[in-house]
Amino acid sequence: MTQIQPSTETNQPLLYPHNNSNPTMDVQDSPRKSYWRCSKQDFFPEPSFKDLSSYRTALSQICPRLKDRLLSRSTETHELVTLRRESENPMKKCLTWWDLMWMSFGSVVGSGIFVITGQEARENAGPAIVLSYALSGFSALLSVFCYTEFAVEIPVAGGSFSYLRVELGDFIAYLAAGNILLEAVIGAAGLGRSWSSYFASMINTKNPDFMRIKIASFADGFNLLDPLAVVVLLVANSIAMSGTKRTSFLNWIASIATAFIIVFIIVVGLIHFKSSNLVPYFPKGAEGVFESAAVVYWAYTGFDMVATMAEETKNPSRDIPIGLVGSMSIITVVYCLMALALTGMVKYTEIDPNAAFSVAFAQIGMKWATYLVSICALKGMTTSLMVGSLGQGRYTTQIARSHMIPPWFARVHPKTGTPIYATLLTTILSAIVAFFTSLDVLSSVFSISTLLIFMLLAVALLVRRYYVKDVISKNDSVTFFVCLFTIAGSSIGVTALWNSGVRGWIGYVVASVIWCSGTLGISLLPKNRVPKVWGVPLVPWLPSLSIAMNVFLLGSLDYKAFLRFIICSAVMILYYLIVGCPCNI
C-alpha cells in the first residue's frame, strides 16, 4: 500500500496532482465569489470533463487511475488544509465540549430506548436487559474511543470518510462513506415518518395514519403519502442550515428538558421497584442477553455524526474527548438505569412491547405520565433529525471537497458558516423518500454501514499506530498483516459458531485463543506513531476487541441487509468508475 507522508507534498501520485500549490493557504485567502453561482464549471471543474474528447481520454486511463486510488492514501495536510479551499469559506469554530456533549445526547437518545427496551425485555433478555444495554454500551464506547482519537488528530468535517481515506485509502473510504450517507438519508426519512406517526397517535390513537394521504393506485408501502414528515424534515434541516451554534443551542435546551424527564422516569421507576419482578433474571440465559445486545445497540448509534463537527470545534484536543467519551459514558449509565426502572416496575412478562414505559406508568396509576414519555420521544426524534442533518451535511461536504461528487456541494456559506448545498442535497433526498415510503419498507433496508465503518475505523487505528510506510520494517509489516487477518478471522469464527447455534465452550475457547494470539502479536511490534494529544488506551487490545464485537453484531443482521449493501455498493462502484476516477483531484 502506498503511503503519502503528511510532511511531504511533492512527488505525489495521480490522485492529488494539485498539491504543488501552497498548502498553507487558508480558505479565507480565496478570491470572494458569489455563493449562489451555478455553472458547469462549478459542478465539473476538472479537465477530464471539459468536453467529450477529454472525458474519453480520462476513461481510457481508468486502469492506472483506479490502481492509484486503490493503493494510495491521503495525508492529514491534504484533508485539513488543501481540501478546505474547495469550500471557499471556512466553517465557524463555535463549538465547545458542552455543545458536543449535548449534541451526542440529542443525536443518540431518541425514541429507540422507549421502543426497543420493552420489546427485548419481554421477548429475549427479561430483567437482564440491563446487561444487554451494558454490553452494547461498552461496544459503542470502544468505537467512540477510535472516533475520538481520529477527530483530535484530524479535526475535519469528513469524519470517518477522511479518517479512512488517510489510513486505508480512497476507494475504501468512498465505499464506506457512500453507504453510510445512504443509510443516513434512509434513517432521516424513517425518523420523519416515525415523528408523524407518533404525533398522529397522540391525537387519534385508533388510526396513526389519519394524517396521511392514501393513493389507491400506488403499490403497497408507497401509497400513504406523508406531507407532515416532509415538513418536519424541512424544519429540522432548515435550522441546521441556519447556523451550527444556533442548532446546538436549540438542541441542548431541548436535551436538558429531556434529561429532567428521564430522571423523573428513573426515580419513579425505582420508587415503585419490586425485586420480585427481577425473578427469573435470565429467562433465556446468556443467549437472550446477547441477542438483545445486538438489537439494543442501535439505540447507541448517532455519535458518529457528532464526530463530523470536529472542524467547527474550538479546542478539538480538549473538547472532543470530553464531549464524545463523556456523553457516551453517561448515556450508557442512563440506558441501564431506565431498563432497570422498567423491569423493576413491571414483571417482564407483562411489559407492553409497543409502549413499554407508557403502559408501565398506567399500571402503577400514573396515566398522566404517559404524556411525558410521548413528549420525550418526540423531542428525541426532533433533535436526532437536527444533529443528523448537521452530520450528513459535513459528510457530504468532505466528499464533495474530494470531487467524488460535484464540488459545488462543498461550498460553505460566508454568513452562516454552514454547507447549505450539501445539507439541501440530503434534505431533499430524505424528504422524497419519507413522502412516499412507509416505515416497514424503510426498516427492511436498514444498512450494515454503521457497524462496517466502526469495524474499519478500529482497523484504521491499528494501521495508524503500527503501519507507517518507510518506517516499519518488511518483517514487521508482514507480521502486522498476518496478526490483523488472524484477529478478523477469529472474530468471524466466533460469529459463525454463534449464528450456527453451537453453544459448546470448546469452539469459543479456541477462537478466543487465536484472537488473543493475533492481538498479542501486534502488541509486541513497535508502535511507529503515537498520538500527539489524546489516544485510545490499551492499544491494540481495545481496537482489536472493537473489531470482534462489531463483527459479532454484523452477524446478527439478516441476509437482506447484506444483499442491500452489495447492490448499493455495486451501484456506487459503477459511479466511482465513470465519475470518481476521471476526476483529477
From TrEMBL:
InterPro entries: AA/rel_permease1 (IPR002293), CAT_C (IPR029485). It is found in: Membrane. GO terms for molecular function: amino acid transmembrane transporter activity. Pfam families: AA_permease_2, AA_permease_C. Belongs to the amino acid-polyamine-organocation (APC) superfamily. Cationic amino acid transporter (CAT) (TC 2.A.3.3) family. Residues 1-27 have a biased composition (Polar residues). It is a multi-pass membrane protein. Gene3D superfamilies: Amino acid/polyamine transporter I (1.20.1740.10). It comes from the Eukaryota. This is INNER MEMBRANE TRANSPORTER YGJI-RELATED. PANTHER family: CATIONIC AMINO ACID TRANSPORTER 8, VACUOLAR (PTHR43243:SF62), INNER MEMBRANE TRANSPORTER YGJI-RELATED (PTHR43243). Residues 534-580 form the Cationic amino acid transporter C-terminal domain. GO terms for cellular component: plasma membrane. The keyword RNA-binding does not apply. The chain crosses the membrane at residues 94-116, 128-150, 171-195, 215-237, 249-273, 293-310, 322-343, 420-439, 445-466, 478-499, 505-526, 533-555, 561-579. It comes from Salix purpurea (Purple osier willow). Residues 1-31 are annotated as: Disordered. Keywords: Amino-acid transport, Membrane, Transmembrane, Transmembrane helix, Transport.
